[in-house]
Amino acid sequence: MPRCKRAADSLSSSQPTIRDAYLELVQRGALSSDPAQIEGTRHFDRILTELTASQPKGLFGFFDKPKPVRGLYLVGEVGRGKTMLMDLFYAALPIKQKRRVHFHEFMDEVHAGISAFRKSARGRNEDADPVEAVTRPILKSGLRVLCLDEFHVHDITNAMLLDRLFEKLFTGGVTLIATSNVVPDQLYKDGLNRQLFLPFIARLKRETEVVELHSEQDYRRLKFAGQQVYAFGSRAEVGATMDRLWLRITGGEEGEPGVVESIGRQIAVPRQALGAARFAFSDLCERPLGTRDFVRIAHSFDSIMLEDVPKMDRTRSDAAKRFILLIDSLYDRGVKLVAGFAVPLDQLGADDRTAFEFQRTVSRLTEMQSEEYLAKGLRDAAPVAETAS
Description:
single chain, alpha/beta, Rossmann fold, 2 domains, five-stranded parallel β-sheet, 11 strands, about 45% helix, about 15% strand, globular, disordered C terminus, ATP binding
């Protein structure tokens, strides 16, 4: 019997499995049953079982060091359900010391920590170890599970850092769960000095189980096939259309409130489900949010519904600037946008101060409703330079 099946079978009846959660969504009609995804739940259930069993127990268990648990590196093409399975795992994991973040956001935090350390008095010492400095607080926090979405390596800065970084994290007992479009052996392919990156690939394969998700259907693309993703008119006129589109992109799930963490604060998400989030224009564009916040949102969801987008005249100048930054962030990331507008796109902006930027925004909005854009997967995106607050 495969190890992952034995692990799943050993889960107590009081501990729901990832397979159970998946099949419940299938039963409700939110998902279509997919053999590859069902197979994927077995690997997550193995980790869930081992992590739960390795938790310190007893009165003095607090002082025990948890046993290390081998993680998972889930590979698959765009839209095959990798992120959805990770979501189910993360929600079911009964451990507080866990974190879920996009790979590039995590690495940005690491680089920021290294930069800050090097500017400090300790960091100027010849024997200073910046990697030790950034991993120490992570391990001191007791982090057990690190979930990184869209793991892939393109630049030499990350490539040269990863082996030392994860050596310390793995040694400290952190279990890595990662999703990616490429197998470990293809990471940083043809990169500069790639031979120096090979030890990390070997470490990654030792510390995680590499599983390929061989699903034939691109479910993300299927959600939007043949759909008109924009509606025009008042809330009363387009509300029913927005509700119908929301249920389509969430598989019939109404969703529930959530938050997106950004630079030490929390951005409220009125409703989220299965990789989609539903906002009103005022939730994002009439609050003191900036580029980094919008980039975080774009990396947190593959689909965004934005309702009640008004005509933006001089009285909404600040909101218009944020709207421009929001659309830039979603477009650069390849996020799918479903939106309700009060007026046609070419009438949205009437403020001379943002006229030029709005021309680009309208052009992007036009492209974002095209079948070609909706058929593409998410892509890496560097934050744009502008900010708003």
